[in-house]
Amino acid sequence: MINQLFLMNGYGVYVWSAFGFTIFCFISLYLITKFQLTREQNKFTKKFAGLPQAKIELAKTQKINKEIIVNTPNFNF
Amino acid sequence: MLKNFNPNKAFFLTTKILKTLFFIFIIILIIGLTESLWISPEDYKQSHSVRIMYVHVPSAWISLGIFAFIGILSLFNFIFKNKNFSLIAKSLSTSGFVFCIIALVTGSIWGYPTWGTWWVWDARITSMLLLSIFYLMYILSWKVFEKNINQEKISSIIAIIGMLNVPIIKFSVDWWNTLHQNATVKIFSKSSIHPSMMLPLLIMTVAFALFSLIIFIMEYKAEVVKLKNKGLDRL
User: Fold this and answer.
1) What is the pTM of this model?
2) Among the four A36, B13, B29, B45, which has the fewest Cβ within 10 Å?
């Protein structure tokens, strides 16, 4: 039965390569997008930390800025 | 209504639902893969090669749907002058492009055992290739014209022109004599696909749609953070 699942009457190579290519694209796209999001969040948090205190207080009034910082992984002020 | 439709509100909403969506996607994908690779029957003519349909067809549907949506959003952007429309369209483009490439590659892999060739210049396949070129042009327009004030207009025009290709792809198999088979899944009339094959096809379509939604949310969040980053410079 396992043999049948992999060989599929000789069509296995086509079926598995089509599914393999799809999964490869999914994983690559997910990892690249996640990397880009994390990079943007890190850039934002670094810039935020480098602001003068008065501007930090001003930026903190925007709820979304806090949300971005809270969701940035592995970042310490 | 459009005043409430802003990136800040969308950012909060999307942060909360991303993990739940990912969990649901994994569950549906596992069910879909089990159905399409193991449980669904082989075709009496194409044998097991028919299983390629379960990745090829949903990818084609989703890439077409996304481009049509990008075109509509670009049109709305011209009418309502709301930046969020172009932000959503831009965030959708990458996943749409990847699904278009998956449809082309898996179609080519399916074509070899079925037609005896990897590629033919028939109406459906060529118009699908044209769609991938429009996707590429749309994505590149955002990068190439990054510092141009007309950047949004240029990318919107590409999307609107590209949208004209969508009905051509859909009806190409009816309008011209093509090697590609006619539509077997129909909305307004009886589908000619057997229910045992329809079920995995629908499950895989839902899984792929969820995946494109997850990628869209992540891309959209990255775009919003980019905007907020520019906002910090103006403080």
Assistant:
1) 0.90
2) B45
